[in-house]
Amino acid sequence: MNIMIFDASPRWSGGANRIYLFAKELKRRGHNVIVCCLPGSGLSEKLPVEDIGTITINPISEANILMVSKIRKLIRRYNIDLIEICSPKFYWISSLAGRITGKKILLTRNVPYRKKGIKKYLNRILYHNLTDAIIAVSARIGRELAEDFMIPDGKISIIHDGLDMQPYRNPKPLSFRKYVNEKVVAVISRLDEHKGLECFVNAISIVLRNMTGVHFLIVGTGGIEQKLRKLAAQLGILDSVTFTGFRQDIPEILAGVDITVIPSPLEGMSMSAIESMATGRPIVATSGGGLIDIITEGVSGIIVNPEDIEDLAEGILRLLESDYRKIGQESRRIAQEQFDLGVVVSKYESLASRLTGQSFSKLKEV
């Protein structure tokens, strides 16, 4: 099957990682995959290394109707069977091009932002008239789509982000502990606004007032890194926090920590959470994202209120004071059952087959 995927992630993100992993696995299974992405993006750099077809294209605006003709030509040139659209910048222009060429259109929603007013009305037209199926990466997103836009049963499929589990099975742990008996709590995230990171840093000071022997990692880079460092200094906790910067050895980092925190108030399905669970590290996450349908309170993790400093601190303390290793093993079991890349890509293949009417043995050459 010939699949064309559209994504406008400007830098590496959970959504870009999802496309990268799906494209690699689909290619391994014999499908022809072409990804249209922004020039200079993480996908534009990583996909060619895997010999995956990559076209750099910048629509500038989601309303750039002039791009429809260009995309229509690409669809015909590569004899595309299925179009998947993963970013709002491509929603309208790619779906219109797909309709003109008579191709099946799959739209993926990986963020939980809900629309209001005219945007809600326009998105209803998009979902009902310009798409054949919708993927929601979490059950919560699926429920909200159905509720907000009255999308009929069967049009929305819940297909989680997938993860290659092999690197997370027995990684060699890296130690960031200053003392032998110290517990380590990590956040792995882009250091951007709206990720709940200031809430996390404020919560650290409360945790340290109630428990000794805890060290915190903030893994990642982004626009508010200096702001977070300054906040940690003002709170007098800088000696208990390590900013690691950008790291590629995430399995090894996770193997060296005790628990992780997902403080984002809105998150579709955090890749950092999936990675943590796959390594057997339990998580504290907010009720504002898709993890609320995955985590059983006190059994496979802890759920707290979004943007609530005291509740986040209390959740971290509760997990650290629990048998968190046992909880981590339950997290690992869930990750293997629900997020294994092979499992989720098989669901994707089944949906693609249903939409196009092609069996998997009937593949075309680009």
List keywords for this structure.
elongated; single chain; 2 domains; 13 strands; Rossmann fold; alpha/beta; about 375 residues; 7-stranded parallel sheet; disordered C terminus
Describe what this molecule looks like in 3D.
- It is a single chain.
- The chain is of the alpha/beta class and 366 residues long.
- The protein folds into 2 domains: 2-162 and 341-356, Glycogen Phosphorylase B (Rossmann fold), CATH 3.40.50; 166-338, 3-Layer(aba) Sandwich (Rossmann fold).
- It has helices at 14-28, 42-46, 67-77, 88-101, 117-129, 139-149, 197-210, 225-234, 250-255, 271-278, 309-320, 324-338, 341-356; strands at 2-6, 32-37, 53-56, 82-85, 104-109, 133-136, 156-158, 183-188, 214-219, 241-245, 259-262, 283-286, 301-304.
- Strands 3-2-1-4-5-6-7 form a 7-stranded parallel sheet, sandwiched between helices. Strands 10-9-8-11-12-13 form a 6-stranded parallel sheet, with helices on both faces.
- Helix 6 (139-149) links the parallel strand 6 (133-136) and strand 7.
- Helix 7 (197-210) crosses helix 11.
Radius of gyration, taken over Cα atoms and rounded to an integer in Å: 21 Å
Identify the CATH architecture of the largest domain.
3-Layer(aba) Sandwich
**What is the N-to-C order of secondary-structure elements (H for helix, E for strand)?**
EHEHEHEHEHEHEEHEHEHEHEEHHH
> Largest sheet, described in full?
7 strands, parallel
Dominant shape? elongated
CATH topology of the largest domain: Rossmann fold
CATH superfamily of the largest domain: Glycogen Phosphorylase B
